[in-house]
Amino acid sequence: MPHTPFRLDDRVALVTGSATGLGQAIAIGLAQAGADVVVSDLPGQSTEETAQAAAAHGARVLHLDLDVRDQEQIAAAMETVKAEFGRLDILVNNAGINRPTAGLDVTRDIWDDHFDVNVKGGFFVAQAAAPMMIQQGHGRIIFISSQSGLIGIPGQPVYCATKGAIINLVRTLGVEWARHGITVNSIAPTFVETNLTRTRLQQPEFLAFVLGKIPAGRLALPEDVAAAAVYLASDGAGMVNATTLSVDGGWTAW
Ligand SMILES: NC(=O)c1ccc[n+]([C@@H]2O[C@H](COP(=O)([O-])OP(=O)(O)OC[C@H]3O[C@@H](n4cnc5c(N)ncnc54)[C@H](O)[C@@H]3O)[C@@H](O)[C@H]2O)c1
């Protein structure tokens, strides 16, 4: 196959939280572009559907239980990837939670739960993946932040804070690790209908508010986010580092 800058042949990718939603679409998109994929999610969450769809594109697929809050599981996951594939080229830190809670009602537990998964989890998976990438002299680390990290959305201050933290985390890690051939970026999608957002988007008033903010006039699709991940993972994005790619149909531009 001729080399094109957006193909991912011979690359190995790990996607966290890929049983469903955006993680599932990203894992399938990376497979479609030629990568082998490690699909992972919380223990007990089946990644079978994702694995089958990725394998249908010819990818070699490995399932892993990986709770991103668990340091032992993170270390074990990296050992398994090394033993099975001998390398890790692409990490997509997709796992995330959002339990919308107004500022006056936020408890310390709600605060910690969000930061533990969305920020601390992603950071320590990236930290564990980096040594393999440094050894290879090549790596792509992609966090899924959100437009909620660029703007405030009433009713979810903690989620917005976690996503803002990711946006500055990728700036710093991208600068630190660039000399090893690693890029670290994030994707900031607008609303996509998934298990995370379905209940809110099914409320006509909320949906109207959201659509009224998106100049493109529609929600994003999981495939829109997957395409951005394929781009950032590719050789074509080698000079795109320490930044955030909005996939929001223009919401954050005005
Ligand atoms: N859906 C949207 O509108 C939207 C918009 C912007 C950003 N995002 C972000 O995209 C990512 C994926 O969201 P989604 O909409 O697909 O949500 P989702 O709830 O459909 O999927 C999230 C996945 O993460 C997994 N997960 C949760 N906690 C985990 C943990 N501790 N360890 C490993 N896996 C864990 C879940 O089991 C689930 O499979 C999240 O980071 C989310 O914040 C979503």
Walk me through the structure.
With 254 residues, this protein is an alpha/beta fold. It has one domain (12-193, 221-249): Rossmann fold (3-Layer(aba) Sandwich). It is 44% helix and 15% strand. It contains eight helices and seven strands, in the order E-H-E-H-E-H-E-H-E-H-E-H-H-H-E. The chain has helices spanning 21-32, 48-55, 71-85, 108-136, 157-177, 198-201, 204-213, 222-233, and strands spanning 12-15, 36-41, 61-65, 90-93, 139-144, 182-189, 244-247. It has a seven-stranded parallel beta sheet, sandwiched between helices. Helix 3 runs parallel beside helix 4. It is globular, with a radius of gyration of 17 Å. It starts with 11 loop residues before the first strand and ends in a 7-residue tail after the last strand. The mean pLDDT is 97. Bound molecules: nicotinamide-adenine-dinucleotide. Residues 16-17, 19-23, 41-42, 45, 66-69, 94-98, 117, 121, 144, 146, 189, 191-192, 194-197 line the site of nicotinamide-adenine-dinucleotide (NAD).
